[in-house]
Amino acid sequence: MLKKEQVNEIIKIAKKYLKGLEWEIGIDSTNTGTTRFANSIIHQNMGVHRPFMWVRIINKKRIGSSTTTDLSEEGIKNLIERAINLSKSKYAPKLETSLPKKTKIEKVSKKIVISPKEREEAVAKIVQVCKKNNLNAFGVIHTINSSLAIFNSNGVNNYALLNWTYTTITAMNESASGFSFAIEKDFHKIDFKELANIACEKALMAKNPKDIEPGKYTVFLEEPAVAEIISFLAWLEFGAKRFYEKTSLISKKIGKKITGKNVTIYDDWTNKLTLGIPFDFEGVKRNKVILIKNGIAKGVVTDSYFAKKLKMKNTGHSLMQPAPWGPFPLNLVFEKGDKKKEEMLKSIDKGIYVTRFWYTRVVDPDRTLITGMTRDGTYFIENGKIAYPIKNMRFLINIYETLENVKMISKEQKYYGEELFGVVAPALVIENFNFQSKTEY
């Protein structure tokens, strides 16, 4: 990561080669400490410093873009020269809107530096718990310090410094596995022994799984499973690009019912569970955007380009330009309900308990049809209790239809995601969840 003073020095150098031009510069600098473990042994312990800089040049309304990881003066000069040359091409894209106006936004978290030894000690706690349960530990601990700065020739001068720790644990033996995770801004708030206990409990409960037939079941979805579904809905539905192209379902449903009335989803970087950067990759202040409220489709997120195209407000959700996906909500929140998870489980006479999904893929984007597999803790529910483990199942669902059938929402929420994108998700009870086929494991 780079301090604000270091960023200012880089911008000072860049300006020497940008005279008379419109420009935008982004600098993303990340320090990552990674400890991976498998079969209860650390097999990778590394640190990576990744500086990354990009520039957009606007030259007679033509755009030239380039990137570099070389932040020396020579590297910066070469970066700008490449972008200028690209902007002179007759094939260079045209800028259809102006660069964002002057802003100065800063969010500086106290830097938390975690040593390799601290990560190793955390792994030791995890392995100790797994060994007591005759299970092997697999997983990763990432500790991240990251800075992001966005500047432009109109006076945008934004800087953020963030810390977070991403941890996953899979406890395994020959026939079963269990999963747990944590994403926290402060490494020291993670109880690694408790996480390991959760993973071990799931693995021990998953021994000798039984076959059940595919079909439609009531499901209890833990937070990671819910986050997986909502993240795919975000890619398909919540950005302005597909809205503008009229290829998303939400583009035809604004102001109309699109899910069950107990479903509210919004994007809000200020939610305490998100990692939360206050500005987007064009330097525009992020706004809270209601996407679905009480089952009614309300809107999508925009950037400067699509805000102009759609004659809508720029909500501050640009990705790094050029952005083939268009604007995107990085801080999604599925609004919590009023039920305890124990109460939700007791409400299910017969159903399936899902810890998480994997290998999820889009089948038909126009119908929000996705498929994927259960993993690391799938159980059959009888009379409000987990009765026995079952073999993993493949699901095939229409996301909006699935959200029509939400019957209960937990009051507890967890943040689940990767890098700067994630979902604050509750657990859900959903009826008529479609399992298309079964597996042999």
Overview of the structural elements:
The chain has 441 residues and is of the alpha+beta class. The protein folds into 2 domains: 4-196, PmbA/TldD superfamily (PmbA/TldD fold); 209-441, no CATH class. It is built from 9 helices and 18 strands. It is globular. It starts with a helix and ends with a strand.
Mean pLDDT: 96
Oligomer: single chain
Strand element count: 18
Helical segment count: 9
Domain count: 2
Helix % is: 10-25%
Instruction: Report the radius of gyration as a whole number of Å.
Output: 24 Å
Strand content: 35-45%
InterPro entries: Metalloprtase-TldD/E_C (IPR045569), Metalloprtase-TldD/E_N (IPR002510), TldD/PmbA_N (IPR035068), TldD/PmbA_sf (IPR036059)
Pfam family, one: PmbA_TldD_3rd
GO molecular function: metallopeptidase activity
Protein name: TldD/PmbA family protein
